[in-house]
Amino acid sequence: MEYFEFKNIEQPQKGDLLLSEPFLPDQNFERTVILLCEHNEEGSFGFVLNKLSILKVDEVLDEIGPFEADLFVGGPVQQNTLHFIHDIDELKEGGQKIRDGLYWGGSFDVLQALMQKGKLENEKSRFFVGYSGWSENQLQEEIDHNSWIIARGVHPSYIFNSPPETLWKSILEKMGGRFKIYANYPSDPNLN
C-alpha cells in the first residue's frame, strides 16, 4: 500500500477543493469533494459538492414557489441551515467572494425574486443543507495525516456542471499520476 501514501505539498486556501483520500473511514466524507469557503487561523469551513440529498430546494423553502433545483448535503454541521454558492451577478453584492467566479450567499430577497421569475440558473448555483467545519488547526492536522488531497484551480463551471456522482473520480483523474490510480481504486477492495 506504499503506492497510496502521498504528502500534500500545497497548503489549503480559500477556494481550493478538498478530496477525501480513497480510504477515509468517516462515512460523512467518504469519497467527497469539499469546496473550501474559508480557511484562516480561527478554523475552516466548506461544502460537500457531491453528496446529493433526496430533497429539492423548493421542498425546504415553501415561500419560493416552484424551483426544482437539487439540494446537496454540505456537511454534518448544522443541517438545519441552508446555504448557496453561485456565480450570479445580481447576488454578488452581499455575498462573500470565494474566488473569481465563485461566491457564497447573498441577499435572500434577491435570490427569492430570481427564483420566482425563473431567472436563477442551475448551471451557476448550488444549494446545501449544513456545512463541513473544522476548528483551529484541525484541517491542517487532517491534511498532515493525508486525509485530504488538495486540488487547486478547478474552474467554477466544472464545479456547477459536473455530475455529483462522478466529481470525486473525475477530478482525481484530471490530476493524473498516482491520483488517477486512486480514482479507480474500489471503495471496498475486499469485494473486488
From TrEMBL:
<dbReference type="Pfam" id="PF02622">
    <property type="entry name" value="DUF179"/>
</dbReference>
<protein>
    <submittedName>
        <fullName>YqgE/AlgH family protein</fullName>
    </submittedName>
</protein>
<dbReference type="InterPro" id="IPR003774">
    <property type="entry name" value="AlgH-like"/>
</dbReference>
<dbReference type="GO" id="GO:0005829">
    <property type="term" value="C:cytosol"/>
</dbReference>
<comment type="similarity">
    <text>Belongs to the UPF0301 (AlgH) family.</text>
</comment>
